[in-house]
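Posting this for the archive.
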Amino acid sequence: MNPHEMVGILRQAAKLKTNTRHCQTAPGRMESVADHSWRIALMAMLLRGEPEFDGVDLDKVVRMCLIHDLGESFTGDIPVFQKTDENTHTEDALFAQWVRGFSEPQRTQWLELLGEMQAQQTTEARIYKALDKMEAVLAHDESDLSTWLELEYTLQREYGFDAVRFSPYLTALRAEIDDLTVQKIREGK
């Protein structure tokens, strides 16, 4: 990849720093898609050394976490409770079209990662998806309750449990995050 192409990719990816998500990280500051992607990559790194994940390619999981929302650099973020299958298809198609313009070996590597993430058949892909959902719940727990919509009180308690069932460690992590949700709601009322 030549430097010109790299700069073009980085400039497109930079849009994730200003594309906001639904929750606030602090009063008046909306979380960016880049904030979210960075933290799920950190979560993946923190799995290193956990016996359950021996033999799992955690470097691949980190790569998945870093690129998983790059389609949103074209479309912006749509909250999970508003996102349709058509929105997801559009985002994935724009991402794949963009990546097809990359030079090799990045084009093939990124398209393979995208395909693996979408298929959700490998342990690595399932870990990335579980972390993606858990980080969203954790970030929302960090938002002031005054910013929550009524439906989010239920969503916070339910979202992501299906994605962690394959893993005892991730199930325990999701339960820990759920404890934060319960505590937040209790303290806020």
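The mean pLDDT is 94. The first helix runs from residue 3 to 13.
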